[in-house]
Amino acid sequence: MLLAETLLVASALAVCLLYLTAAARLRRRGDSWPWLRDAAFAAGTAAVVAAVALPMPGGEFTGHMAGHLLLGMYAPLLLVLARPVTLALRALPPGRARRTLLAAVRSRPAAALVWPPVAALLDVGGLWLLYRTPLFERTHESMPLHMLVHLHVLAAGLLFTLAICQVEPLRHRSSLPLRAGTLVAAGAAHAVLARSLYAAPPPGTDFGPADLHRGAELMYYGGDAAEIALALVLALGWYAAEGRALRRERRRTRSTGADFVL
């Protein structure tokens, strides 16, 4: 691995270690924290490491696309579902650090970045810019640019996943119709991009037709699978919220009835 890739891998592993340490701290003091979240964060970290450091199967473009899916779609889903911000807020003792983190999460800039249309534009729009301009070719000529693109793909994927799932303590929670509509629109834009790559490679590249077609198909169907997983998380979140609202309404009804009897 090159130095930049080594630093990225080391950073990902360090963050994973911090997460697992914080989770263990919660359990030692008697608080609950689901083990599945630990597993999700570890799996998400493994996906990041694999995308950056390991050779992917298939031709050059197919392997690149496999890494893109891991880094930009599957790793973000696993990492977000692990709820690292919630864990940090629970693990940090009351004080300046905890207040600073909560203020950052609920700040206006953070709210703007995780508003679903903005997050979708940063995510899918960045992919259109990467694959339908000479930028993709230039990433093969400049390692700093190559690593910046890696970081953008991961960061934009995290923002988009967080905006759709909204499982962390955000400043404002977007409505279900807005999140669902944004997911559908982003999925359509991702599918159109994959189809365009099937027809024509990124400008300035000369991938073989078979490699190009396999990579475009992987992007199309792999993207569909990730978006179905996001839709499932969205549906489960709605179901849980409706259940909580129904239980609150039943408690209010029982309380009102008891007051009436008295």
From TrEMBL:
<keyword id="KW-0472">Membrane</keyword>
<dbReference type="Pfam" id="PF09678">
    <property type="entry name" value="Caa3_CtaG"/>
</dbReference>
<dbReference type="InterPro" id="IPR019108">
    <property type="entry name" value="Caa3_assmbl_CtaG-rel"/>
</dbReference>
<feature type="transmembrane region" description="Helical">
    <location>
        <begin position="143"/>
        <end position="164"/>
    </location>
</feature>
<protein>
    <submittedName>
        <fullName>Cytochrome c oxidase assembly protein</fullName>
    </submittedName>
</protein>
<feature type="transmembrane region" description="Helical">
    <location>
        <begin position="38"/>
        <end position="56"/>
    </location>
</feature>
<feature type="transmembrane region" description="Helical">
    <location>
        <begin position="218"/>
        <end position="241"/>
    </location>
</feature>
<keyword id="KW-0812">Transmembrane</keyword>
<feature type="transmembrane region" description="Helical">
    <location>
        <begin position="6"/>
        <end position="26"/>
    </location>
</feature>
<keyword id="KW-1133">Transmembrane helix</keyword>
<keyword id="KW-1003">Cell membrane</keyword>
<feature type="transmembrane region" description="Helical">
    <location>
        <begin position="68"/>
        <end position="89"/>
    </location>
</feature>
<feature type="transmembrane region" description="Helical">
    <location>
        <begin position="176"/>
        <end position="198"/>
    </location>
</feature>
<feature type="transmembrane region" description="Helical">
    <location>
        <begin position="110"/>
        <end position="131"/>
    </location>
</feature>
